[in-house]
Amino acid sequence: MHSCLKRIFAQPLIQAPMVGVSTPQMAAAVSNAGGLGSLGIGASPVAAAQDMIEETRGRTSAAFNVNVFCHPPPQRDSAVEAEWLEYLAPIFHEFGFTPPAALKEIYKSFVEDEEAFRMLLIMRPKIVSFHFGLPPQDRINAMRDAGILTMATATNVDEVRLIEAAGIDVVVAQGVEAGGHRGQFALSERDLGLSLSVLIRLAVRSTRLPVIAAGGIMDVQGVRAALALGAAAVQMGTAFVLCPESAADSTYRAALKSERAIDTRLTSAISGRPARGIANRFMEIGAMGPPVPSYPVAYDVGKRLHTVTRAKGCDAFGAYWAGQGAALAREMPAAKLVADILRQI
Ligand SMILES: Cc1cc2nc3c(=O)[nH]c(=O)nc-3n(C[C@H](O)[C@H](O)[C@H](O)COP(=O)(O)O)c2cc1C
Asked: Has this prediction a pTM greater than 0.85?
């Protein structure tokens, strides 16, 4: 087995990369506690991403994972964007703000981000993971030649096979329970919405690669269940949102600690891609609206709507990404969360 793989599966617990939530402090705390910490740099400018990697290295000598977004670059459609802005405009007015006149692509996909690719090759993190698809083959090959272990998210068997065929080292099987964005590649095809227990079984039967289970795993019982189904390790996201090392703000934390956490839903309205979070007014309004612009263009107005409504004390438009197990989230330091689980597996 690859020596990096041994390092990961010595302790089968990965803290999910979470843009907006995971931090160098969190990733380092998890890796220092014997799990595998992750950074999500998918929405960060290259210099900020490099700083995050350097800061994490300053806090741990153990391996950690760096995650990038490989979505198809957005297809801009000015009519769709104008109609969406017009649809959301009354909410801006309701809170006393002027709606934006236009939308921006707020961050680039790794598939076309040469600068981010070069930075990763120079920084050479031990592990890089891909969400929303795969980078071009020559980049995967270059990372492998640089000794970087690669992982990629799959939500169905077709994606598992594509990941294996591309020479990626590890599959992250993401069930429909998972918090945050669904990682499926082909948005034009129907999302099968496979639950984690079925997806793990299908994945381990269709690949020789190690399969990591992600979605709704909140405690040692969930970890044991995923391992019993054949997963080589688990990747937990929502379970870490309440940790003191998390970048989640006070309204996000309050929502997660409230009774609202029992109701999570998938929506494309906030960002332009399906993602699971705590149900709110944005999701309801979005479900009745016109077509949503492409990811991450729609996220531009989604984030602005949250900023302006929050400034007026309203938390009904936040992207409080969380999995179906959200109501099981506990507030504790990341190192304790990891150590408690690893002790009991
Ligand atoms: C707040 C949040 C942000 C996330 N951001 C990312 C990300 O940047 N990259 C990624 O690959 N997955 C991301 N995910 C998905 C996780 O990798 C993982 O699939 C998910 O957290 C597993 O489900 P759970 O949250 O129920 O544990 C995110 C999840 C959450 C909850």
From this structure: yes
